[in-house]
Amino acid sequence: MKTLMVIDPKMCSECKDCITACEKEHGTARARKSSSIPIFCLQCHPDKAPCARICPTGAIKEEDGTLIVNEDACIVCKLCLIACPIGMPVIDEEKKAVQKCTLCMESDRILPACVEACKDNVLKVFSVEELEKLKSDVSFAKVLEETLKMCQDKL
């Protein structure tokens, strides 16, 4: 099932607890902070993800609706970092491979570490199906539209 993470930038206190939790969980933070709010992988459609499409070794593959980096196949050419529209893949110097957000699907967690650590409760995980249902709610659609505009203004 394809899942996405949504953030409410108006409610974010900019504490960076989500980024710290990600780093603690994975050894390298797979998210980063912009001038104010945290930025996460867009979880692009596996067939259209620029990072996966440009990878010369095919190290970035879809697994259960999420793109995963095969560390053994990664040659750290950094093309995925260039191709990503928001520059989200990160290099794990210790593992000598690129890392990207997987919403912690490779762990035993029910919720991603960042979502669990967010004291402001501004990070939410939705399935694509749940988001489709929410789009029909006019009030929610307006909030989502405002949030997207704010994110674009902050980048």
Outline the structure in words:
- This protein has 155 residues and is α+β, with helices and mostly antiparallel strands.
- It has one domain (3-154): 2-Layer Sandwich (Alpha-Beta Plaits), CATH 3.30.70.20.
- Helix content is 32%, strand content 18%.
- It contains 6 helices and 8 strands, in the order βαββαββαββαβαα.
- It has helices spanning 17-26, 50-54, 79-83, 113-117, 128-135, 138-154; strands at 3-7, 32-33, 38-39, 60-63, 66-69, 90-92, 97-99, 123-127.
- A two-stranded antiparallel ribbon has the order 1-8. A two-stranded antiparallel sheet has the order 2-3.
- The longest helix has 17 residues, at 138-154.
- The mean pLDDT is 86.
Task: From the structure above, extract its key features.
155 residues; alpha+beta; Alpha-Beta Plaits; two-stranded antiparallel ribbon; 32% helix; 4Fe4S_Fe_S_CS; 4 iron, 4 sulfur cluster binding; metal ion binding; oxidoreductase activity
